[in-house]
Amino acid sequence: MTSNEDTKDDVSFDRRVMQAAVRLSLLALLVFWCLRILGPFINPIVAGVVIAIAVQTPYAKLAQVLGGRPKLAAVLLVGVALLVLILPTIALGASLVETTAELSGDFIQDEFKIPPPPEAVADWPLIGERLSELWLGASQNLESALVKLAPYFKDVGLWLVSSMGNLGIGLAMFVVGILIAGALLPNGERAAKLVRKVASVVAGQRGPELADLAASSVQSVTRGVLGVALIQSLLAGLGMLVVGVPAAGLWTLLILILAVMQLPAML
Questions:
Q1: pLDDT tens-digit readout, 160-196
Q2: Helix, strand, coil percent content, the chain, rounded in steps of 5
Q3: CA distance 92 to 246
Q4: Comparison of pLDDT for 3 and 116, the residue scoring more
Q5: How large is the average pLDDT for residues 28-33?
Q6: Share of the chain above pLDDT 90, in %
């Protein structure tokens, strides 16, 4: 009798183990496929979460100024962010297209001339003499110089196309991240409570404290990134003003945007 009961217990235990294994396998497969589907959106989702955490303080103040209307505050923040991001990009793109068209027209009509190099260029270390020769040759016969440099232009062109493609993808991802942040901001309190609960399960009693520490760290890093980006853009803008670069203000704003987005490191 005891032997039969032990056998039944073993069979029941084996059945439960098999059921648990099947359930865990199906759950793992479901998680895997969810991650595969969400894979292309992981970066903008993470960016949206970081942006939402970073602007939480000004968002709360804006919502308070608007009479406790969090959705309106989120819409205004998203609208301003998209305008600051998109308008300079469009303006610079149009300016580049116009400049390229003018240069192409001058080149076709043989009106594009390169002045000879200053004598001081030849005295530059390492590259001065070679650069002076190339520059002088281009000023005397531009077509011949372009033929000689054609193999290098091909590699440079491929690099530029790749960089512009990465830049476009980065801008698109950042726009999606801003939209995700706008959707998260009105639900910030509920999301914070959920994160604290998950942190409590993972880290025990110190979980909520660690979650708050992570949020404050994100805000501190964001302030540091903004400060460095502002310094970089101001220095670049001053340099462009000194040398007389056209549309220096737009270029400065674009540099600020790219520095905030950390796109140079991605490129």
A1: 777 777 777 878 888 888 898 888 888 877 877 877 7
A2: 90, 0, 10
A3: 11
A4: 116
A5: 88
A6: 0
Kindly report, residue by residue over 214-253, the tens digit of the pLDDT.
777 777 777 777 778 788 888 888 887 787 776 677 777 7
Residue 211 — pLDDT band, cuts 50, 70, 90? Answer: confident
Residues 6+ apart with CB under 8 A from 185: 52, 55, 56, 59, 70, 73, 74, 77
Domain with 232 in it: 2-266
Is residue 89 within 8 Å of 171, Cβ to Cβ? yes
Within the chain, what is the greatest distance between any pair of CA atoms?
A: 108
Mean pLDDT for the stretch of residues 73-88? 85
Give the C-alpha separation, 138 to 114, whole Å. Answer: 7
Task: Please tell me the total count of domains within the chain.
Answer: 1
Number of Cα atoms under 13 Å in the Cβ half of residue 211 = 18
Distance CA 149, CA 169 (A): 30
Amino acid identity for residue 53 in this structure = I
Q: Is the distance from CB of 235 to CB of 252 less than 8 angstroms?
A: no
Distance CA 132, CA 46 (A): 49
Encoded amino acid at 182, one letter: G
Structure tokens at 19: 């059921």
Both tokens assigned to 253: 């704003």
69: number of CA atoms within 13 Å, CB side?
8
Are the C-beta atoms of 200 and 207 separated by less than 8 Å?
Answer: yes
Under 8 Å between Cβ of 166 and 262:
no
